[in-house]
Amino acid sequence: MTPRNIFLKITNESLGWLSAAEGFVFLSGLTAGLVYTYKYLEKGEKTITTASRTRAWLIYKYHMLLFLLVALAVFSTGFLQEYWSVDYASMLKSPVATTLLATVLLYQPNFLDILPMYAVFVLFIPIIIRYFERGAYAPVLLVSGALYLLGTFNAFALLTPIFHNLSEHINTGFFNLLCWQFIFVIGLYLGSLYYHGKTDSLQRNSYLFYAAVVLAAPLFIAKFLYIPLGNFDIQYWSDKTYLRPLRLLNFFAILIIITYIATKFKTWFHYKPICTLGKYSLEVFTFHIMLLILLKPLEEYLNGLYEIRVSNNFSVYPLGTLLIVAVLLALFLVPIVKAKRNTNTPPAVKKAV
User: Fold this and answer.
1) With 60 as the cut, is the pLDDT of residue 348 above it?
2) Where are the domains of the chain?
């Protein structure tokens, strides 16, 4: 058996069935709940409708720019072409058709499916915030929960062959939007409650915290140690594409734990460099995907050059790890360049933009 990277074991879903994607979608919803609730109350519904459309359009433009840059990179060298031949097979086979499909979000290959999902969710923010501000929290959450159930149990599976009959290159992405909208809406809900000062009792509820620990601990042990759970199909119930119930419960448990800890140790989650990256999340995300496309093949090549065996199952790959550290440091170039650009931009131009 080929040894696995021990750092990947530690960093990839290290808290159970929970990845960065859940955090990104939830935090996007939470931030939007705060910001758009404020804008709605201060400036009205028309303002947030315009703001959401503008934001969605910006995300779409970043997505298409990223798509074209990835296509250019993949076609640029035989080395990249060979490495990404599976993930971007349709792009390599029919670049024109896949580009046209990408413009209407019907071709979203690996790593190019987060931004389209985010753009779609942003368009629904004004509708949801309006209902929240009318006190209709329960109907919104019930509708969102019902859509989640339809999605997670793949109620529309029969539609998939219909789409593929239209074009063999149609790929609507890894994430099922009906499922993933649920944690975005939960984020909007909690953001709205937080703006109105209604979350303090939830954040500081010790009973909720201990219940979350009791739930999260066995899930962490089962995931980290690969403990089988009898006849329970753990792969199905923790599926990431459909955000199935085990993964969703794991997410909420960790969310409650982190929120409770944050109320006790407020400075722990105020690390300035990370906050800076968060401020420019769209640009940082786009840049990091481009780096991934360009450097992932090089990382695997470096891993093959030098390996330190830790056990029969795990190894350390120093050269590949150094490359990853360099990439993480490079991400900080984005806010530096962005801040410098903003400083050099005349006020009149900023206002026009």
Assistant:
1) no
2) 20-221
Residues 319, 306: contact at Cβ < 8 Å?
Answer: yes
Q: Beta strands of the chain (E only): which ranges?
A: 4-5, 308-309, 314-316
The helix (run of H) or strand (run of E) holding residue 244 is none
Task: Quote helix, strand, coil % in the chain, to nearest 5.
Answer: 75, 5, 25
> Which structure tokens are listed for 9?
């074991």
Ramachandran angles phi, psi of 314, nearest 5°? -130, 150
Chain centroid offset of residue 179 CA: 13
Helix runs in 134-176, H state only: 137-152, 159-166
Report the amino acid identity of residue 247: R
**β-strand partners of 166:** none
pLDDT tens-digit profile of 66-103?
A: 999 999 999 998 999 999 999 999 999 999 999 999 99
Rounded CA-CA distance 93/106 in Å is 16
Give the 3-state secondary structure of residue 171. strand
pLDDT tens column, 156-175 = 766 666 666 667 889 999 99
Distances (CA, A) of 267 to 28, 206, 240, 263: 21, 20, 32, 9
Model pTM score: 0.89
CA angle 321, 108, 93 (to 5 degrees): 95
What tokens appear for 52 in the block?
């959401």
User: Residue 108: left (phi > 0), alpha (psi -120 to 50), or beta?
Assistant: beta
| Single-letter amino acid, residue 311 | S
